[in-house]
Amino acid sequence: MNRNKESQHNNNDIEESIVQGLMEKYQKPPNEYLASSKQLIESSRRKLDRKVMDEIFKSSSQYYPQLKVIDLAIPVQHEVVHISPSVARDMLKFSKRGSINTDLSNRRVNRSAVKKFAEDMNEGRWCLTGEPIIIGHDGEILDGHTRLEAASKSNYGFIAIIIWGISDALAFAHTDTGNIRSRANVLEMAGVSVDAKVLSQVAMLSKAFDMTMNPYAFRGTQGTSFKPAEILDYVQGRDELALSVNKISSLAKEHKQQIQAPQATLAFAHYLINEKLKSYEGDELPITPDIYIANIISGLGQTSTESIEYKVRDYLESIRKESTSYALLCRLSCIFKGWNMYMGIPVVGKKVSVRRVANFIKNEEGERVPAKAAGNIKEAFTIPFIEPGKTPHKVKKRAAMKQVN
C-alpha cells in the first residue's frame, strides 16, 4: 500500500516536472491579468494541505474542497513587519517611481488622509486589518503610498503586512480598492510624459467615439464607465493621442490668454481630424490640422469676421463659461464644422454655430418652464471629412422644443 502511494507521488512529481519543462520551452509565462490566467490554473498540480485548510477556515474547512496552489514564475511572499518613520521615509525616497526608475512615477497622495492616518498612528488607534503594503517584483511600491507617507510623519510608525514579488504588469491599475486610482493616476504611473489628466480625458473621448454605433449621435463620455486599466491599455496602442495632447499643451502655454476651450476638447479635435485625414484621398489640403487648431487657439491673423477660424472662435467664446457635457459636444461639433467648411464639405445649417435645445419651453398651460436637456445639441454631430448624416431620432425629439424669449 505504501509502495503504491510512493509510486503515485513519484509519478506526480515527474508529471509536474514535464509540464513545467514544456511550459518553459514552448509557452511564454503570462505577465498581465495573472488572476484570470487559465494557463496558470490548468498547470497547477498542487493543492493546499487539509491541515492548512483547517488552519485557515477553522470549522468551516470541512465544507470546502482543497484549494489549488498556483505556482508563479516569481513567487509572492509576505511578512509582518514594523515600519518606523525613518524607514517609511526612505521607502518613499528610494523606491519612489520616478526617482530611481525614471520611466515611472508614483501617484499623488491625499493630504487629508495622510493627516488622519498619522493622527491614528500617534494615538495608538491603528489596526492591523490585513491590508498589505504591496511591492512589485522590481522592488517598486505598488500600493501603500498614503500609509507610508503618514508613517513618515508619525512618531512611531506602524506594524504592517508587507507582500512582495507581485509580477502582474497591470497590478498598479487594479490595487487599492479603498482609494481607487483615477485614470490619470494610472497614466502617470506608466510614465506618460504629457499631462496625464488631459490625456486621460482625451483617451476616454476617443474610446467613447470608437464605441459609438452611430457617430452622428455621439454623446461624448455620457453613459460610459471606463476602468483605469482600460484607458491605460487604450493609450498604449495610440501614440497619436499623446502627440495631440503635447501639441495642444504647448499652444495653450503660449496663448493662455487667448484659448477659449478646454485643452482636452482641443486635443481630441486635433487627434480625430488627424485620424480621419489618414483615409483622405484628396491631392492637397487648404490648411493643415496643426495650423487650423493653432489659429483657433491663438486667434492670430484672424482680422476678418468672415474667416472660418474667427467664426469658430466667436462661437467658442459664446459658450466659454459652460462646463457641461452638452457644451463639450457643441464645441467639438463647431470645430469640426469649421474644418469641413475648409474642405468644401457641407455642414448642418451652413454655419459653424450649433443648434441647441432651448433653456425654456411652454407647457400645455402656456407657462414658461425649464426644458429637459436644456443646452444639449439638437442636430447631428459633425465628423471631420464626413458629410452631414441623418439627424438621430433622439435628437429630433429634442428639436421639437420651442424656445421662449
From TrEMBL:
Matching entries from SUPFAM superfamilies are given as: ParB/Sulfiredoxin
This protein's source sits in the domain of life called Bacteria
Q: Which InterPro entries does the entry mention?
A: ParB/Sulfiredoxin_sf
Q: What is this protein called?
A: ParB/Sulfiredoxin domain-containing protein
